[in-house]
Amino acid sequence: QVQLVESGGGLAQPGGSLRLSCVASGFTSDSYAIGWYRQAPGKEREGVSCVSNLDGSTMYADSVKGRFTISRDGAKNTAYLQMNSLKPEDTGVYYCAASRADWGCTVDPRYEYEHWGQGTQVTVSP
User: Fold this and answer.
1) In this structure, are residues 83 and 66 in contact, taking their beta carbons and an 8 Å threshold?
2) Are 67 and 52 in contact (CB under 8 A)?
3) What would the pLDDT profile of 17-50 be if each residue is shown by its tens digit?
4) How far apart are the C-alpha atoms of 8 and 61, rounded to whole Å?
5) What is the DSSP string of 47-95?
6) For residues 8 and 79, what is the distance between their CA atoms, to the nearest angstrom?
7) Residue 90 neighbours by CB under 8 Å, 6+ apart
């Protein structure tokens, strides 16, 4: 059974950091493109970052460039999203997603990755 489980969310102060983890089971995550998305209350889903399974290339939304870093550890079947210099507008539920993609990865919110986690809440507030 394919499963993605996120963790690491919580409450952080503006300027603080959090690291989200996404543990994959039921498949080898190295063979999949991994994406991180977020959704704030009353807002549409937003693509945050992704990493390609082809060459490890990454993409970031303009809103998080220079602050967030995506990575993956094949040995642990886990992907990470390191979030630094957090802002209140980073608040939302963060989801990781995976797809078998032979073209790279995308943060386009219209793209439906094959598998999704249940999400982890991130709240940035003083």
Assistant:
1) no
2) no
3) 999 999 999 887 778 999 999 999 899 999 999 9
4) 20
5) EEEEE-TTT--EEE-TTTTTTEEEEEEGGGTEEEEEE-S--GGG-EEEE
6) 12
7) 38, 64, 83, 122, 124
